[in-house]
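User: Need the bound-state model for protoporphyrin IX containing FE:
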Amino acid sequence: MSVLVQWIHVTAAVIGVGAMAFLLVILLPSVGFLTAEQHDRLLRLVMRRFGWVNWSVILLLLTSGLYRIRSRYWEAPWASTWKWLTVKIVLALFVFAISLLLTLPLKIFDRFRARRQMWLSIAFGLALAVILISAYLRG
Ligand code: HEM
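Assistant: Bound-state model below.
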């Protein structure tokens, strides 16, 4: 069971962070030649799909992550491992919050979407830090 949960956690992380990297490094820098109308239409379609992928990834990371805490850390005393795990989870929650602000179809979040590239860069940087802490914890 724990190998399956680890596989789900790592796969969700790969798809979630990979989707952010694709948007940030490949798609957004490549659509400048489109007319404003084409640009908006493409981004609306892409962000709607990105939304579904993201919400599924957040759900899988939270459930598999909590399972792994229960199976690997629950009995562990409060020491540096727990401290790093807490930092990781707080950073992960910021990544989740930013991706929800960019994908939830609520008008109040339009001002965040207006600075999509900046927020995606922040979320991507934080996600890379989360992976670094995870690799450290793994070690
Ligand atoms: C942006 C979100 C996240 C990313 C990119 C991420 C990524 C990863 C990666 C790459 C690993 C190492 C895989 C392995 O070798 O086992 C890992 C392990 C782990 N993650 Fe996450 N994770 C995220 C969110 C979370 C959350 C929200 C939780 C808890 C609620 C969590 C709990 C854990 C635990 C307990 C481990 C096992 C650490 C160990 O090896 O001892 N993760 N995560």
